[in-house]
Specification:
heterodimer; A: about 270 residues; MetI-like fold; globular; B: MetI-like fold; about 0% strand
């Protein structure tokens, strides 16, 4: 079919602006430049695995895992309730989860800056009702809170989407065969919802692992996650080789976590990497 | 009782999601500069907001880049979707995988890789680089919006048009395009919204003196609280709300029309369609790819 030629401009565009740049990242990661010219090297990667940078990586992973877990714990019940019979007009209510996500990401994060401040709205409220004030701005907790706030809908929506597609007949069959509610949930609903859970985890974990905005705004100036490290290397320090190496480590990390996740999803219509 | 508990829980989550926004909106009308105390109603911050040259300039840049990149991305993306729809075998798989790279790649990596490219090819950083970057990350979303419409399309329609004597181009213009138009419009809106919302990629690809709203917000927020940002948030939230209502009314009408064929194309899909605006949607990725794909 000659009509497949219509994708030619697109292929050219993506080659120039996606494929070539990725190869440039790889190129910079594996080379070093000095007065004598360019040479192949592994120094950038050796540096990336120094304890100080491993610590940054570990911290990013820790925060991303933690906020993903919080999102899952908060989000799964929401999806379950929404898929059940508690609400009519489900589509309207589901839309309410989407609306905050459409407000500018930075403004959403900025909102927490206002709330969490020492004299911010939250502390005013707490002191008015006689509770001790909370000073979590510029700590891990604020960063996690920012991540959960920004990414929670990403967890709810895919799980809801899978749960609402479950054939009610299967659930009825299980109860007819004598399973109680808990067993139905553990043996029928939960396994069937796993693809949604996997999607949700990936959709929360990825941005949480790579963000540099939330950590910068809510974690304060000194706060470093792997995203901040990359940003600094490119915009402040100017060490592209090292920055590229860390970016590659980050990509590999993401690929590994996706592979791990897809392992849990096996059995669902052919185990694709996703 | 169970129902009551369930509703309460969902309500609490809504409170968590909306309270920060509500507080911002309330504070945007607060005459007192300090957050804790209510100093009376004022529109002062809105006046100051509209007088702020930096913010107004970046608003202009944001809208300009958003509109231009959405238009170009829609043209390239729609053509690409038609190509992909008609392609088979390895070609199709290759191009689909190409499509998922920017969707799945961390934004920061897309950002720095484009920055390296632009420095490497000695392009002056500014409007041009910003526009090129935005078009790049927008195209895949246009493709993902148009492809489903193409799949619903009755392939006999095009053949019929040709049999009746239409030139291929004419048949595309008068038969195919009107049929897939809803997908094209969704793609256009999606691209526009994504472009407006983007921060990370813009941050790495813009030049001095050119900044989008997101970049301006970032640099202002880094310096601390600013009442003008509250006013800006309020306006943007209202704008988004309006836009979403329009889009959903459109889609609801569309759905009613198409209900006969796909009875069970349930709500979830519409919402998910909106979701990938804000990020990735592995679920659709999964459906689309059907083969192992990687970065």
């Amino acid at each position: 079919m000659t009509r497949s030629r219509a994708m030619l401009p697109y292929v050219v565009w993506m080659t120039i602006f996606i494929v070539v740049p990725l190869f440039l990242v790889i190129y910079y990661a594996f080379t070093t430049r000095d007065a004598n010219g360019t040479a192949l090297t592994l120094a950038n990667f050796q540096r990336a695995f120094q304890p100080i940078y491993l610590k940054v990586l570990a911290r990013s992973l820790k925060l991303a895992v933690f906020s993903t877990a919080v999102c899952l714990l908060l989000g799964y019940p929401v999806a379950l309730i929404m898929a059940g019979k508690a609400f009519s007009r489900k589509s309207t209510i589901m839309l309410l989860f989407v609306i905050p996500m459409w407000m500018n990401f930075l403004l959403r994060t900025y909102a927490w800056l206002t709330l969490l401040e020492r004299n911010g709205a939250l502390n005013q409220l707490l002191s008015r009702i006689g509770l001790p004030t909370l000073n979590i701005l510029y700590t891990d907790y604020a960063v996690i809170l920012g991540m959960v706030y920004n990414f929670l809908p990403f967890m709810i929506l895919p799980i809801y989407s899978v749960l609402s597609k479950i054939d009610q007949g299967v659930i009825e069959a299980a109860s007819d065969l004598g399973a109680n509610k808990l067993v139905v949930f553990l043996r029928v609903v939960l396994p069937l919802s796993l693809p949604g859970v996997v999607s949700g985890i990936i959709m929360v974990f990825m941005p949480a692992l790579t963000t540099f905005v939330i950590s910068r705004l809510l974690g304060g100036g000194q706060y470093t996650l792997v995203g901040n490290l990359i940003e600094q290397q490119f915009l402040v320090v100017g060490d592209w080789g090292f920055g590229s190496a860390i970016s590659m480590v980050l990509i590999v990390l993401i690929l590994i976590s996706m592979a791990v996740m897809s392992f849990f999803e096996k059995g669902e219509e052919g185990a694709t990497l996703w | 009782m169970v129902k009551f508990l369930q509703r309460t829980y969902v309500f609490l989550i809504f409170a968590f999601l909306y309270l920060p926004i509500a507080v911002l909106i309330a504070l945007s009308f607060n005459a007192s500069r300090s957050r804790g105390t209510w100093g009376g109603f004022t529109l002062q911050w809105y006046v100051e907001l509209f007088q702020d040259r930096v913010i107004m300039n970046s608003l202009y840049t944001t809208l300009l880049i958003g509109a231009c990149s959405a238009l170009v991305a829609t043209m390239i993306g729609t053509a690409a979707a038609i190509g992909i729809h008609n392609a088979r075998g390895w070609q199709r798989r290759l191009v689909m995988n190409l499509t998922y790279i920017p969707v799945l790649n961390p934004e920061i990596v897309t950002g720095i890789s484009l920055m390296i490219l632009f420095v490497f090819s000695k392009v002056q950083f500014g409007y041009m680089t910003l526009l090129l970057a935005h078009i790049t990350f927008n195209i895949p979303y246009v493709i993902l919006s148009v492809l489903p419409k193409l799949r619903q399309l009755n392939s006999n329609l095009y053949e019929a048009a040709l049999d009746l004597g239409a030139e291929p181009w004419y048949a595309f213009w008068r038969v195919i395009l009107p049929e897939i138009m809803p997908g094209v419009v969704t793609g256009l809106l999606l691209a526009f919204t994504l472009s407006i919302d983007d921060f990370v990629i813009s941050f790495f690809t813009t030049g001095s003196g050119v900044s989008t709203l997101s970049i301006t917000v970032y640099s202002m927020a880094r310096r601390g609280i600013n009442p003008k940002l509250n006013a800006l948030s309020t306006i943007m939230f209202t704008a988004v709300l309006l836009l979403l209502v329009i889009v959903n009314v459109r889609q609801a009408r569309e759905e009613r029309k198409g209900r006969k064929e796909n009875e069970q194309q349930e709500v979830g899909f519409r919402i998910i369609g909106t979701v990938d605006a804000a990020g990735i949607d592995p679920e659709r990725v999964q459906q689309e790819a059907g083969n192992p794909l990687r970065i």
